[in-house]
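Q: My labmate handed me this sequence with no annotations at all. I'd like to see what the chain might look like in three dimensions before we decide whether it's worth expressing. Could you predict it?
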Amino acid sequence: MSRRRLRNSDASISLTPMIDIMTVLLAVFMVTTPMLTTGIELDLPRAGHFALSGNDHAIQISVNSAGQYFVGETQLSLDDAVKRVIAMRGENPMLTIMISGDKSADYGAVMAVMGRLKDAGFQRVGLRTQIDD
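A: Here is what I predict for the chain of 133 residues:
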């Protein structure tokens, strides 16, 4: 006589947690990607033969010649621009910020955004420049 053991095994995998995680990641990328690849037209200052252009994954904050602040192509006040970047840091603690200041922009406006970002705890803040011909 053979004895058979009957097992009640459920070999299915629950996909719900994976789908939840993928949905959150999709939402994060949909929100942050347009801000990484767009910006406003600026006349960057020239600084030597090596340009500080920033990496492709940095958040771009721009200051135009009128002293207006932009995150991507969205014009914001200084406070709102800093708040938006702080919110982005919640998703990526190693976030890099590149500040693009028009060469005719007020030096104080560019330094104001840089100082506010440093006060908010950002360690990776740089200034974009253009190659000197």
